[in-house]
Amino acid sequence: MEEESKVGIPTWDLESINWVTPIAIGFYDGLSYIDFVKENEEDDVVWRFLCFLREKYQRIKLYAHFASKYDNKFVLASLRQHDETVKLEAGFLRLRWVGPNILFEDSFSLCPMSLERMNKMFGVEEKGKWDHSRTKKPWDMGEELIAFRAYLRTDCISLSHSIFQLCELLGVTFGQMPSISLATTSAKVFDKCFYPVDQIEPNIEFEEFIRSADYGGRNEVYKRYGENINIYDIHWMYTSCYNTPVPIGRLRWIKPDINRGTIAEATVKVPKDWYIGPLPHKLSGRLIFGVGTWTDWFDVVDLRNAVEMGVDITIRRQLSCEEEPILEGFRQFMSSLEGKGKDPFWKAFGLSLSGKFGQSRWRDSIRFYNEIKDFRGYTPTDGKEEYFSIKEFVGKGAPYIRPLIYIRIRTEARIRHLKILLKAMETGDVFYGDTDSCHTTSTLPTGTKVGELVQIGRAEKGYYVRQKLYGIIKDGRLEQKSAGYSDLKLTEEDFQKLLDDGYADIAISHLPSYRRVLSDKEVKLLHQGRRIKGDMGDSRKPVGNDTEPILLGEHQ
Are 155 and 115 in contact (CB under 8 A)? Predict the structure, then answer.
């Protein structure tokens, strides 16, 4: 084993051919490194690695980046093949080999970014470079095997040093160590250092009403093509909203009163000629901001803002509780860390707090067959029917589930985003807005503080096809946003065609760039029949190169 000068956290990494055939594993115990390279066709390199751990490293916890999506699945398969007992304690985020009490955890859940970005942020060794198309059976790699093993070694050691830096950062800053995920870590820090979570009422008896008032961020296309576009983001938007009072007391029914209350069921009448609807509504599984008349549960803060804008509202029933700005201390501390390094981590850390409060009380749980007494309700997850999944109730006492706080922060964020969109409309065109962004021809005031607008770019042209699918031309080059289609690199011609054809059901395979990819035999996706379906799932109705909000009530 090779000795290292720096102390780190135990890590490992698995490399394979075509992502399915393991050929090498690197392991760093925090002081020294060793690798296991497949020696012949019969060599089970994963089991050899596991036997090494059992012999020398019982009761160890080790990390791999993206382990829950990849590395841990090879461990599970190997251990079950050899009749070893395994427990999945947080799905594939935490896999426990029961006999030697060895934990395999996912470092991505602690620091949700690529290993390359993580290493740069913490100032450790850069991630190794390797072209995976060159990966072959080790005995066929020749001299390239040296570079391959060096790449594997660098990945293990750099991850170890990054996690060590993360532990040190949290320890020095809060006196806390990472938990299973960044969200849980953030909630524990808030609980221990800022406000005791057990002093916040869970209000579980009202959860049906609470969840009915839960809506996500706004994502809408307003104008589908434009030029000379300024692109803005709200800096650390969700964290900036932590200065608002949030519900912490026990809910009770009160008489309808727009000036009081926490959540309410209300009938709203939004003027039909409004260009941007102020209130959220869930329609056929999608979130829209419509016009017209409908009845829903809302955060009362949303209703108050709508009344100020001129919406007619009738409250039908209402729940109220004590509210205090208990997140303000956390917000101020996060703001004090901004600009002092590690900004990507602290942004995610702050955002994770409200996300943890909003988690469901039901979670996917995976059990081995010998742990299950009654199989009713369970579903097999593997061909041998050894592992089964079920939705399990995490209990009334789940310490960090406080959905009212989550709803209030999301509501406040939507209102602040809406105000920026409306401000931009006063002096120019608005093309697109997604949660905390605004694409507009207007010039808006910017700043450097948390919650202020930051201009992140300027585009000569923009093609906005639908939610999460657009292309912008910056400095003569196309930048593509295409959630669900990121492996298909579209051209400006493709985006023009998508706009020209309207929101008709357009097969991606009909686009010129898609045919080009197929002709190069690099990607074969034709059999999947992937399509862009515009008005089947977008949040606004297209009208030429413009859009309008969906009318509710009359034609819903």
Answer: yes
Q: Which residues of 419-458 are buried (b: 16+ CB within 10 A; e: fewer)?
A: ebbebbbeebbbbbbbbbbbbbbbeeeeeeebbebeeeee
CATH code of the domain occupying 2-179: 3.30.420.10
Which pTM value belongs to this model? 0.89
Distance between CA atoms of residues 58 and 91, nearest Å: 22
Whether 365 contacts 392, CB under 8 Å: yes
Strand ranges (E), 291-427: 291-299, 312-320, 323-324, 362-368, 379-380, 387-393
* Residue-level pLDDT at 468: 87
Q: How far are the Cα atoms of 76, 375, 378, 546 from residue 382, in angstroms, in the given order?
A: 12, 15, 12, 48
Nearest Cα to Cα of residue 459 among 487, 429, 483: 429
The residues of the chain that CATH labels 3.30.420.10 are 2-179
Say what the pLDDT of residue 324 is.
98
Q: What is the pLDDT of residues 157-207, one digit of tens each?
A: 999 999 999 999 999 999 999 999 999 999 999 999 999 999 999 999 999
Q: What is the predicted pLDDT for the residue at 8?
A: 81
Pairing mode of beta strands 102-106, 219-221: unpaired
The CA distances from residue 208 to 205, 294, 531, in Å, are 8, 19, 36
Q: Which candidate, 339, 336, 297, places its Cα nearest to that of 319?
A: 297
Please answer whether residues 226 and 461 qualify as being in contact, where contact means their C-beta atoms are separated by less than 8 angstroms.
yes
Angle between helices 403-427 and 300-309 (to 10 degrees): 20
